[in-house]
Protein backbone atom coordinates (compact mmCIF):
# COMPACT_ATOMS: atom_id res chain seq x y z
CA UNK A 1 0.00 0.00 0.00
CA UNK A 2 2.77 2.41 0.97
CA UNK A 3 4.62 1.66 -2.27
CA UNK A 4 1.48 2.37 -4.29
CA UNK A 5 1.11 5.77 -2.59
CA UNK A 6 4.73 6.65 -3.35
CA UNK A 7 4.26 5.64 -7.01
CA UNK A 8 1.04 7.64 -7.25
CA UNK A 9 2.75 10.71 -5.73
CA UNK A 10 5.65 10.35 -8.18
CA UNK A 11 3.25 10.22 -11.15
CA UNK A 12 1.39 13.31 -9.93
CA UNK A 13 4.65 15.24 -9.48
CA UNK A 14 5.88 14.19 -12.96
CA UNK A 15 2.59 15.23 -14.54
CA UNK A 16 2.82 18.61 -12.83
CA UNK A 17 6.38 19.43 -13.87
CA UNK A 18 6.53 17.96 -17.39
CA UNK A 19 4.49 20.80 -18.93
CA UNK A 20 6.91 23.29 -17.37
CA UNK A 21 9.91 21.54 -18.92
CA UNK A 22 8.26 21.66 -22.35
CA UNK A 23 7.05 25.25 -22.02
CA UNK A 24 8.13 27.68 -24.71
CA UNK A 25 10.82 29.95 -23.17
CA UNK A 26 9.51 33.03 -25.01
CA UNK A 27 6.11 32.90 -23.29
CA UNK A 28 5.50 35.71 -20.83
CA UNK A 29 5.49 39.46 -20.47
CA UNK A 30 8.74 41.30 -21.21
CA UNK A 31 9.61 44.94 -20.40
CA UNK A 32 12.16 46.87 -22.49
CA UNK A 33 15.04 47.90 -20.22
CA UNK A 34 17.41 49.45 -22.73
CA UNK A 35 18.31 49.67 -26.39
CA UNK A 36 21.49 50.04 -28.44
CA UNK A 37 21.86 51.24 -32.03
CA UNK A 38 25.27 50.44 -33.53
CA UNK A 39 26.63 49.84 -30.03
CA UNK A 40 25.45 53.17 -28.58
CA UNK A 41 22.81 53.36 -25.87
CA UNK A 42 19.66 55.18 -26.87
CA UNK A 43 16.78 56.49 -24.82
CA UNK A 44 13.92 54.19 -25.90
CA UNK A 45 10.24 54.81 -25.32
CA UNK A 46 8.60 52.42 -22.83
CA UNK A 47 7.64 49.14 -24.50
CA UNK A 48 6.11 45.87 -23.31
CA UNK A 49 6.16 42.62 -25.27
CA UNK A 50 3.67 39.92 -24.38
CA UNK A 51 4.18 36.47 -25.90
CA UNK A 52 1.32 34.03 -25.46
CA UNK A 53 0.32 30.74 -27.02
CA UNK A 54 -2.75 30.08 -29.15
CA UNK A 55 -2.90 26.44 -30.17
CA UNK A 56 0.33 25.64 -32.00
CA UNK A 57 1.15 29.31 -32.66
CA UNK A 58 2.84 32.07 -30.68
CA UNK A 59 1.17 35.47 -30.40
CA UNK A 60 3.46 38.51 -30.07
CA UNK A 61 1.88 41.80 -28.92
CA UNK A 62 3.99 44.95 -28.53
CA UNK A 63 2.36 47.63 -26.34
CA UNK A 64 3.25 51.26 -25.65
CA UNK A 65 1.80 53.54 -22.97
CA UNK A 66 -0.42 56.48 -23.87
CA UNK A 67 -1.48 58.51 -20.83
CA UNK A 68 -0.48 55.56 -18.59
CA UNK A 69 -2.69 53.10 -20.54
CA UNK A 70 -0.89 50.48 -22.64
CA UNK A 71 -2.11 50.19 -26.24
CA UNK A 72 -1.11 47.42 -28.64
CA UNK A 73 1.09 48.96 -31.34
CA UNK A 74 2.05 45.83 -33.28
CA UNK A 75 1.11 42.13 -33.32
CA UNK A 76 1.88 38.94 -35.15
CA UNK A 77 0.89 35.31 -34.73
CA UNK A 78 3.16 32.60 -36.09
CA UNK A 79 4.48 29.09 -35.95
CA UNK A 80 8.20 28.58 -35.47
CA UNK A 81 8.40 26.91 -38.89
CA UNK A 82 9.82 29.67 -41.08
CA UNK A 83 6.59 30.39 -42.95
CA UNK A 84 5.65 34.05 -43.36
CA UNK A 85 3.11 35.55 -40.97
CA UNK A 86 1.50 38.96 -41.18
CA UNK A 87 2.70 41.80 -38.95
CA UNK A 88 -0.17 44.12 -38.07
CA UNK A 89 -0.28 47.58 -36.55
CA UNK A 90 -2.57 48.57 -33.66
CA UNK A 91 -5.47 49.10 -36.05
CA UNK A 92 -5.12 45.59 -37.49
CA UNK A 93 -3.64 46.72 -40.83
CA UNK A 94 -0.92 44.55 -42.36
CA UNK A 95 2.39 46.44 -42.28
CA UNK A 96 4.75 43.62 -43.17
CA UNK A 97 5.65 39.98 -42.65
CA UNK A 98 7.84 37.98 -40.30
CA UNK A 99 9.42 34.54 -40.47
CA UNK A 100 10.81 32.82 -37.37
CA UNK A 101 12.61 29.53 -36.77
CA UNK A 102 14.44 27.98 -33.82
CA UNK A 103 18.12 28.89 -33.99
CA UNK A 104 19.38 26.63 -31.21
CA UNK A 105 18.64 26.30 -27.52
CA UNK A 106 16.85 29.43 -26.28
CA UNK A 107 17.44 31.19 -29.61
CA UNK A 108 15.18 32.11 -32.53
CA UNK A 109 16.11 33.46 -35.97
CA UNK A 110 13.82 35.94 -37.69
CA UNK A 111 13.37 37.95 -40.87
CA UNK A 112 11.13 41.04 -40.95
CA UNK A 113 9.92 42.45 -44.26
CA UNK A 114 7.92 45.60 -44.94
CA UNK A 115 7.10 47.50 -48.12
CA UNK A 116 7.93 50.76 -46.30
CA UNK A 117 11.22 49.78 -44.64
CA UNK A 118 14.34 47.79 -45.46
CA UNK A 119 14.25 44.08 -44.58
CA UNK A 120 15.77 43.11 -41.24
CA UNK A 121 17.27 39.84 -40.09
CA UNK A 122 17.91 39.05 -36.49
CA UNK A 123 17.53 36.77 -33.55
CA UNK A 124 15.89 36.54 -30.16
CA UNK A 125 17.83 34.96 -27.30
CA UNK A 126 16.37 34.00 -23.92
CA UNK A 127 18.87 33.84 -21.05
CA UNK A 128 19.43 30.40 -19.47
CA UNK A 129 17.61 31.52 -16.30
CA UNK A 130 14.64 32.70 -18.40
CA UNK A 131 14.69 36.23 -16.94
CA UNK A 132 16.20 38.17 -19.87
CA UNK A 133 15.47 38.44 -23.58
CA UNK A 134 17.78 40.04 -26.12
CA UNK A 135 16.46 41.03 -29.54
CA UNK A 136 19.15 41.68 -32.14
CA UNK A 137 18.55 42.92 -35.68
CA UNK A 138 20.60 44.03 -38.66
CA UNK A 139 19.10 46.26 -41.32
CA UNK A 140 20.72 47.44 -44.52
CA UNK A 141 19.68 51.08 -44.96
CA UNK A 142 21.08 53.26 -47.72
CA UNK A 143 23.95 50.85 -48.28
CA UNK A 144 24.88 50.98 -44.59
CA UNK A 145 24.33 48.20 -42.07
CA UNK A 146 22.54 49.27 -38.88
CA UNK A 147 22.66 46.95 -35.87
CA UNK A 148 20.20 47.23 -33.02
CA UNK A 149 19.87 45.36 -29.74
CA UNK A 150 17.00 45.55 -27.30
CA UNK A 151 17.27 44.18 -23.78
CA UNK A 152 14.08 42.98 -22.08
CA UNK A 153 13.42 41.58 -18.61
CA UNK A 154 10.60 39.21 -17.71
CA UNK A 155 7.79 40.77 -15.70
Nutshell version of this structure?
The chain has 155 residues and is mainly beta. The chain has one helix spanning 2-21, and strands spanning 28-37, 40-42, 48-54, 57-66, 69-78, 85-89, 94-104, 107-114, 117-126, 132-141, 144-154. Helix content is 13%, strand content 61%.
Features:
mainly beta; ten-stranded antiparallel β-barrel; disordered N terminus
Notes on the structure:
The chain has 155 residues and is mainly beta. It has 1 helix and 11 strands; from the N terminus they run αβββββββββββ. It has one helix spanning 2-21, and strands at residues 28-37, 40-42, 48-54, 57-66, 69-78, 85-89, 94-104, 107-114, 117-126, 132-141, 144-154. Strands 1-3-4-5-6-7-8-9-10-11 form a 10-stranded antiparallel beta barrel. The model is unreliable at 1-21 (pLDDT under 50).
Topology:
Layout: H1 2-21, E1 28-37, E2 40-42, E3 48-54, E4 57-66, E5 69-78, E6 85-89, E7 94-104, E8 107-114, E9 117-126, E10 132-141, E11 144-154
Antiparallel strand pairs: 1-2, 1-3, 1-11, 3-4, 4-5, 5-6, 6-7, 7-8, 8-9, 9-10, 10-11
Amino acid sequence: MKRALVCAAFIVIQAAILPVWGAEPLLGTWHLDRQEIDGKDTNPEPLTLKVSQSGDKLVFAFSVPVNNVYFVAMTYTLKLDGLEADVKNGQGDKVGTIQMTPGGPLQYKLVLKSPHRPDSSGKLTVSPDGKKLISEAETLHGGQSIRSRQFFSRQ
